[in-house]
Design a protein that fits this description.
Elements lengths: L2 H7 L3 H11 L3 H4 L3 E3 L2 E5 L4 E4 L17 E3 L21 E9 L8 E6 L2 E2 L1 E6 L2 E7 L5 E4 L9 E9 L20 E2 L3 E6 L3 E10 L7 E9 L5 E11 L2 E12 L3 E7 L16 E9 L2 E10 L4 E4 L2 E4 L2 E3 L1 E5 L13 H14 L4 E4 L6 H10 L2 E5 L9 H18 L5 E5 L9 H14 L4 E3 L14 E4 L13 E5 L13 H19 L4 E6 L5 E2 L10 E2 L12 H7 L10 E3 L14 E6 L3 E6 L2 E6 L14 E4 L9 E7 L2 E8 L7 E6 L3 E3 L5 E9 L12 E7 L2 E4 L4 E2 L4 E8 L4 E9 L3 E10 L7
Helix pairs in contact: 2-6, 4-5, 6-7, 8-9
Bound molecules: beta-D-galactopyranose.
Length: 768
C-alpha cells in the first residue's frame, strides 16, 4: 500500500493529525531542534510569509509572495488593543506561506509537517496540492508530505487560516465567554522519520511508592509493512545518568504498541509539589549497531488519585487550591512563545502559591504544561468548548480532541485529571460515555472529570467536577468532589476599584476556601480565575474584559491574589499582603477595617509609629483555614500618616511592610521578567511598569502615559505610549532575529526615565 493509500485507509487528515498529537510531546521537540539517529525534527517557525486575506493563487508553488509580510510564529493574525476592541477584527481568513528545501538526508524517509496550534481551521497545501483541512484551534495536527514533497528542490507550504467562529468547530456554535483570536499561534516543525518509526511513547510509572518501582514504556510503532527484525530499547535517565534499561526483539510488519518494562532500578525520587523531580525516558529502534530511530519523553514518578476523602498525591492528602487559567494575553491573543507560557506556571505556583491550575477551557501550550511539571503545579486539562454541544460531526471533533489532548499530554506528571465534558454543557449520555471511554482507553492511569454547572448532572466520570458560584457552597453531593469555579462573574473586580470592593473580592475567595477546608470530601477548589481575560460583547465589563482574575490581564496581582499567596507555609515564604490601599477616605466612612492576608500568627499595626492595633487571625470568620486572614480595626487611630504592619511568628518579628500615608506618586519602576532572550524572532519577555510610593507599594490611581523607546533588534508588543491602569501595566519585548543589545527606555511624565537592557543571544538559523 503506498503512503497516500495508507493515509486514506487510516482516515485521511484525521489520522495524520493524530500522528502529530503523538509526536509533539517529545523531548526532542521540547529542546527545540535535534537530529537524533534516524529522525530529524526541523523547526519551521521563521521565514513565513503572511497576508491578511485570501489571495487567489497563493497556494501555487510559483506564486510571488514578495509582497506578503515576513513573519515568525507564534504569530497573531492582527495586533489588537488590550481592551475595547471588536472580535470581528481578527475573524478573517488569512494566508501563510513557507518555502523549504529538505536536507539531502531526508531521502527515503517519511516527512510530516506538525502544527501545534492554529486558530481555528487550517487548509494546508503543498506545492499547489491540497492536503486537507484540519478543524480545531487548540489541538495539534499534522499532514504527511512524503508523496508530494520535492526531496531535492524547493517546496512551498501554504495554509489558509480561517479564524472566524465556525459553528462546525468546538468551541463555537453558540455564545462563549472568551476570545479565541487567530493565526498560526503555536510552533510548526517538519518531522522526518524512517519508514518504520516511533510514533508515540507513553511511559507509565508503577508501584512508585514501593522500594521496587517499575516503568512500563508503551512504544507506538508505525510500521512500513515490510517484515523485518529489530530491537526496541528503552532507557530511564536521571539527567545524564542511565537508571535502567530494557529491550525487546521485534519481528513484525504491523503497526503496533510494544511494551518494554523497566524494573529493578530501586527507589526513585518522587515528583511532588515541593520537589518536582523529573526523569527522561529514551527509546531507540536498533538494527544491529545502527540506531534507526529514537525519541524521548520527560516523566515523573508520582501516584495521584481523587478519593472520597480528598485528593491524594503520593498517599498524602493535598487540599487543592488553585485558579482557572485562560491562555490569552493582551495585544497578541494566544500568540506568546514558550518563555511567556512557562512564566504563567511560575506566577501561579511561586508568586500565588497555587497547587493546581485548570486549563479552562481547552488544552493549553505544551510550554505551559512543561512549566507546570517543572514548578510542581498540578493540572486539570480539558477539551475545548463552552456550554454548547453541536451536531454529530461537531461531537466527533470533540471526541477526537480528547484523543489529541491525552496522546499529547499523558506523560506530564503535573496532569492529574482529564476534563472530558464541554464546560458547563447539558448532559448527553452517549457523547460523554464516548469521551470518557476514549480518555480511559488512551490513559488508564488517570481519572476523568467533566466540568458541570448543575448538581443533578449524570456522573459518568471518576471525579465530580462542579462549578458552584453560590455561597455557602453546596455540600459535596458525590464522592470525589472538586469545585472547579467560584467567584468570577459574581464579583468582577478591577485593580482600580475602591477598597471595599477589593477587600470583599478577597474575602469571597477566602470564604470559599474556608468552607472547602471544612470537609475532607471537598477535594479543594479552583477559583475563577487567574487572570482577567478578553471576551465577547455579551460578557464582561463592557470593554471586552472579564475582570474576574485575582490578577489583571498583565498578570499583576489584585489583593485577592494575596489570599492565595498567604496559604503557603511560612517556611516557604513569610507572607503579609494587605487587601487594601492605604488611603484615608476611599471607602464611604473613612478607613475602618484593614484586611490582611498573612501566614503569620500575629500582626501589629502602627500609624506614625504608634501601635494602633494588634490582632490574631480571624478564626471566627474563617475557622477552617490554616492561615486565616486578619482584620484590624484602625478606626481608633489618632492621626493619619504612614502605616507599618509587623508580622510575628511565635513571638518573633518575621516580616514588616510600610505604606505611605502621603498620597504622592514617588517612584517609577520598570521590571523586566528576563534579562536575556533568544534572537529567534519569537522569544518574548514581559516588562512591568509601576508607579509606587516611597516604600514600593503600587499607587492604584496612577494612570500616566509612559513613553517607550526601544533600540536594538526587537519590537514592543503593547501600546506606546502605555497608559498605566491601576498604577501598573506591562508591555512585552519580542526579539527579532539578530543578536545584540536591546535598550528599552520608559519615560514617566514627572518621575523621569528608566532604562533596561536585554541581551539577545544568537541562535542557529533554521535548517529548512
Ligand atoms: C462560568 C464559565 C467560565 C466563565 C465564568 C465567569 O460559568 O464556565 O468560562 O464564564 O462563568 O464567572
Amino acid at each position: 500500500m503506498d503512503r497516500r493509500n495508507f493515509m486514506k485507509a487510516a482516515g485521511g487528515a484525521l489520522a495524520s493529525a493524530t500522528l502529530a498529537s503523538n509526536a509533539l510531546a517529545s523531548t526532542v521537540q521540547q529542546l527545540g531542534t535535534a537530529d537524533v539517529a534516524g529522525r530529524m525534527i526541523l523547526p519551521m517557525n521563521r521565514n513565513w510569509r503572511y497576508h491578511n486575506s485570501v489571495v487567489p493563487g497563493a497556494h501555487e508553488r510559483n506564486f510571488d509572495d514578495s509582497g506578503f509580510d515576513r513573519v515568525v510564529v507564534p504569530h497573531t493574525n492582527i495586533k489588537l488593543p488590550w481592551h475595547s476592541f471588536d472580535d470581528k477584527a481578527y475573524e478573517f481568513i488569512s494566508v501563510y506561506r513557507r518555502k523549504f528545501t529538505l536536507p539531502s538526508a531526508a531521502k527515503g524517509h517519511r516527512v510530516f509537517v506538525d502544527f501545534e496550534g492554529v486558530m481555528t481551521a487550517s487548509t494546508v497545501w503543498l506545492n499547489g496540492r491540497k492536503l486537507g483541512e484540519y478543524k480545531g484551534g487548540y489541538t495539534p495536527f499534522s499532514f504527511e508530505l512524503t508523496q508530494d514533497v520535492d526531496f531535492s528542490g524547493e517546496n512551498v507550504l501554504a495554509v489558509d487560516v480561517d479564524s472566524t467562529e465556525r459553528s462546525d468547530i468546538p468551541p463555537f456554535g453558540h455564545q462563549i465567554d472568551y476570545l479565541t483570536f487567530g493565526g498560526i499561534y503555536r510552533e510548526v516543525s517538519l518531522r522526518i522519520v524512517p519508514q518504520t518509526f516511533l510514533e508515540n511513547i507513553f511511559a507509565k510509572p508503577q508501584d512508585v511508592l514501593t522500594p521496587h518501582p517499575r516503568l512500563q514504556v508503551d512504544c507506538h510503532l508505525q510500521h512500513d509493512g515490510a517484515k523485518q527484525s529489530f530491537t526496541l530499547e528503552a532507557e530511564l535517565r536521571d539527567g545524564e545518568r542511565i537508571v535502567a534499561k530494557g529491550s525487546q526483539a521485534i519481528e513484525s510488519a504491523a503497526s503496533a504498541v510494544h511494551t518494554v518494562t523497566l524494573e529493578k532500578f530501586g527507589a526513585v525520587k518522587l515528583w511532588d509539589l515541593d520537589h518536582p523531580n523529573l526523569y527522561t525516558v529514551h527509546v531507540r529502534l536498533q538494527r544491529g549497531n545502527e540506531t534507526f530511530d529514537e525519541d524521548s519523553r520527560r516523566i515523573g514518578f508520582r501516584e495521584a488519585q481523587f478519593t472520597d476523602h480528598g485528593f491524594e498525591l503520593n498517599e498524602k492528602i493535598i487540599k487543592l487550591r488553585g485558579l482557572d487559567r485562560h491562555q490569552t494575553f493582551p495585544f497578541v491573543g494566544q500568540a506568546m512563545p514558550g518563555r511567556v507560557q512557562r512564566r504563567d506556571a511560575e506566577i501561579l505556583r511561586k508568586k500565588v502559591k497555587c497547587n493546581i491550575v485548570r486549563t479552562s477551557h481547552y488544552p493549553q501550550s505544551r510550554h505551559f504544561l512543561d512549566g507546570c511539571d517543572e514548578v510542581g503545579l498540578l493540572v486539570l486539562e480539558e477539551i475545548p468548548g463552552w456550554q454548547h454541544i453541536g451536531d454529530e460531526a461537531w461531537k466527533q471533533i470533540s471526541v477526537d480532541n480528547v484523543g489529541r489532548m491525552v496522546r499529547r499530554d499523558r506523560n506530564h506528571p503535573s496532569v492529574i485529571l482529564w476534563g472530558v465534558r464541554i464546560n458547563e454543557s447539558p448532559d448527553d449520555h452517549d457523547f460523554y460515555a464516548r469521551t470518557n471511554a476514549l480518555a480511559h482507553k488512551l490513559d488508564p492511569t488517570r481519572q476523568t472529570g467533566g466540568i458541570r454547572a448543575f448538581q443533578g448532572s449524570e456522573f459518568l466520570e471518576d471525579v465530580f467536577t462542579m462549578n458552584d458560584f453560590g455561597f455557602p457552597l453546596k455540600p459535596p453531593s458525590r464522592p470525589r468532589y472538586l469545585n472547579t469555579e467560584f467567584c468570577g462573574h459574581t464579583y468582577p473586580t478591577k485593580t482600580i476599584d475602591n477598597k471595599e470592593r477589593l477587600m470583599e473580592h478577597t474575602i469571597r475567595h477566602a470564604r470559599v476556601h474556608d468552607q472547602l477546608a471544612s470537609n475532607p470530601q471537598y477535594a479543594g477548589g479552583i477559583g475563577w480565575c487567574a487572570f482577567d481575560y478578553n471576551t465577547h460583547y455579551d460578557f464582561g465589563s463592557g470593554d471586552r474584559i472579564c475582570y474576574h482574575g485575582v490578577m489583571d490581564i498583565f498578570r499583576e496581582p489584585k489583593p485577592a491574589a494575596g489570599f492565595y499567596k498567604s496559604q503557603c507555609d511560612p517556611s516557604e515564604e513569610v507572607v503579609l499582603e494587605p487587601a487594601f490601599h492605604w488611603a484615608t477616605g476611599d471607602e464611604s466612612v473613612g478607613f475602618t477595617n484593614a484586611l490582611v492576608c498573612s501566614n503569620c500568627d500575629h500582626l501589629r499595626f502602627y500609624v506614625n509609629d504608634k501601635l494602633v492595633a494588634e490582632v490574631g487571625p480571624d478564626k471566627t470568620r474563617f475557622p477552617n483555614l490554616r492561615y486565616a486572614p486578619f482584620v484590624a480595626d484602625l478606626d481608633k487611630r489618632e492621626s493619619w500618616g504612614d502605616l507599618r504592619i509587623e508580622g510575628y511568628l511565635q513571638g518573633k518579628r518575621a516580616i514588616v511592610k510600610e505604606f505611605s500615608g502621603k498620597g504622592i506618586d514617588k517612584k517609577f519602576e520598570i521590571l523586566p521578567d528576563d534579562p536575556k532572550l533568544q534572537a529567534d524572532g519569537a522569544d518574548t519577555t514581559r516588562v512591568v511598569l509601576r508607579v509606587t510610593d516611597e516604600f514600593g507599594n503600587i499607587r492604584p490611581f496612577a494612570n500616566d502615559a509612559i513613553k517607550l523607546e526601544v533600540e536594538g533588534p526587537s519590537e514592543i508588543i503593547g501600546d506606546n505610549p502605555f497608559a498605566l491602569i491601576g498604577g501598573t501595566g506591562a508591555v512585552w519585548i519580542r526579539a527579532k532575529e539578530q543578536p545584540g543589545t536591546v535598550r528599552l527606555t520608559a519615560t514617566h511624565p514627572t518621575l523621569g526615565k528608566r532604562q533596561v537592557e536585554f541581551e539577545l543571544l544568537s541562535v542557529a538559523p533554521e535548517r529548512v
